[in-house]
Amino acid sequence: MIGGTDVVLEIGPGVAAADAILRAVRRHWPHCVYQNADDETAPFAPVADWPPRSVEREFFVYRDEDAARDWDAEGATEANHNTMLYVILPDESPAPSDRPTVTVVCGEPTGDVKAILEDIETSLRLDRAGGNGVGGVRGPDAALRE
Amino acid sequence: MIRGEGMNHFTDTRGYNGIRASPVWRFRAAQPPGEHPYGAYFTTLSAKTPNLAKRLGIPKSKLEYLFAFTDDGDLTPLPGARGKVVFYSATDYEVVPEQQTYCGKAVGS
């Protein structure tokens, strides 16, 4: 009753996690599709404005439109399991002693997903001025247009 | 110690018929796909949770039936953020009738 691989990555000080993750994914999946985890409306169209303006604490990023449609219709399958990332950002107020982490759930860390995870891990370590390092849920004008 | 919140196990027709065959539900530990620990898995997420199959990383066909119960607080959280809602037992896990709250079609999935 469980699938996927849970990869836990630390967020460096000052890093806007959502922005860093979404930009890293887009470098590998240029036609990727975003969906908030609580949103069940069709997420099938890539958006020109990346990252999306409204990013929630939990979200999915699909490789492309076909992957989004397939996941929506079937859930996880052997064919699609490595075409979507499920991202869970940290709570807004972790304990002060806790180093914030993000969980990225993938099918398995191989192929282009392995490369994406490595890119995300590197991006999350980069110190970017202005980020709060927690949640990283910021509008596209906050850090990406710097 | 009772955890105080409902625990759910989703499954398909085959799993449903196997588990409900005895008065004491027995959820068999197994090796799940991915790099998760060997075990029997459960979630506090309900059948009405949006995008449930995507969150759990399973086929939608595995959401057809639901076993719901109150656990003894003896289940282990999955490592990572999903551990807030996904738990497992490293061995077969039994639920006596007194702790069983529902089994049948998973309404909302």
Structure description:
- The complex is a heterodimer of chains A (146) and B (109).
- With 146 residues, chain A is of the alpha+beta class.
- Chain A contains 3 helices and 5 strands; from the N terminus they run βαββαββα.
- Chain A has one domain (7-125).
- In chain A, α1 (17-28) packs antiparallel against α3 (111-125).
- Chain A starts with a strand and ends in a 21-residue tail after the last helix.
- Chain B is mostly beta strands and 109 residues long.
- Chain B has one domain.
- Helices cover 11% and strands 31% of the residues of chain B.
- Chain B has a 3-stranded antiparallel sheet. In chain B, strands 3-6-5 form a 3-stranded antiparallel sheet, with no helix packed on it. In chain B, strands 2-7 form a two-stranded antiparallel ribbon.
- In chain B, a hairpin with an 8-residue loop joins β5 (76-77) and β6 (86-89).
- The longest helix of chain B has 7 residues, at 13-19.
- The model of chain B has no long low-confidence stretch (mean pLDDT 92).
- Chains A and B meet through β1, α2, β4 and β5 of A and β1, β3 and α2 of B.
SSE layout and pairing:
The complex is a heterodimer of chains A (146) and B (109).
Chain A lengths: L4 E6 L6 H12 L4 E4 L21 E5 L2 H10 L9 E5 L12 E6 L4 H15 L21
Helix pairs in contact in A: 1-3
Chain B lengths: L5 E6 L1 H7 L5 E3 L12 E4 L8 H5 L8 E6 L5 E2 L8 E4 L3 E3 L4 E6 L4
In short:
Chain A has 146 residues and is of the alpha+beta class.
* Class derived from helix and strand content of chain A: alpha+beta
Decide which structural class fits the backbone of chain B: mainly beta
- Widest β-sheet, arrangement of strands of chain A: 1-5-4-3-2
Total number of helices of chain A: 3
Strand order of the largest sheet of chain B: 1-4-8
Oligomer: heterodimer
Report the portion of residues of chain A in β strands.
Answer: 15-25%
Largest interface: A-B, 32 and 31 residues
How many individual β-strands of chain A? 5
Span between N and C termini of chain A? 43 Å
- Main sheet overview of chain A: 5 strands, antiparallel
Question: Judging from the principal axes of the Cα atoms, what is the shape of chain B?
Answer: globular
Largest sheet of chain B: 3 strands, antiparallel
Shape of chain A: globular
**Unreliable parts of chain B:** none
**How would you spell out the order of helices and strands of chain B?**
EHEEHEEEEE
How many beta-strand elements of chain B?
8
Radius of gyration of chain B: 13 Å
Give the % helix of chain B: 10-25%
Give the low-pLDDT segments of chain A. Answer: 129-146
Number of helices of chain B: 2
